[in-house]
């Protein structure tokens, strides 16, 4: 019996292509993404599914190197779908490829466990680069989203710094015990003004 293509490649010392599972409710979109990915000979789509339950079964069987997911195309809540995959496969790189506007959803998807976020309209230019980065366990977002997140973090840090400074300015200054004694002694030793006799 002939071995699987990946086994044959391994046997002759060739580098195995990165195995990818596509999770998207739209069959046409899955085919389009597959054609785009497999332009790169180092990438191979090993399965396509249209739901979370099917994705979990395939991920257990195929053990891919990456899953590309459109959580907004699925029937269940997008964040819940992503969290379920992340919970079952905590070390599997997950790239979100979706129509959801990145300025609204990218940050929440990254917080839920995504390793990258690409909008489908940007796929021809960004998808292959995103796959490469996410497979290396780097985070990939567009420069616009990156700038938005950094600006929010910077504003948060500035707000916290202002609050700390305000709190410090309102806090009574404490005096060390040895300083208290010196201060008291200084008050006692202060000479009283001499009375002028008429």
In short:
With 198 residues, this protein is an alpha/beta fold.
Walk me through the structure.
By secondary structure, the protein is α/β, with parallel strands linked by helices. Helix content is 53%, strand content 13%. The chain has eight helices and five strands, in the order αβαβαβαβαβααα. A five-stranded parallel beta sheet has the order 2-1-3-4-5, sandwiched between helices. β3 (66-69), α4 and β4 form a beta-alpha-beta unit. α5 packs across α7. The N and C termini lie far apart (127 Å). Residues 7-14 have low confidence and may be disordered.
Descriptive terms for the model:
198 residues; alpha/beta
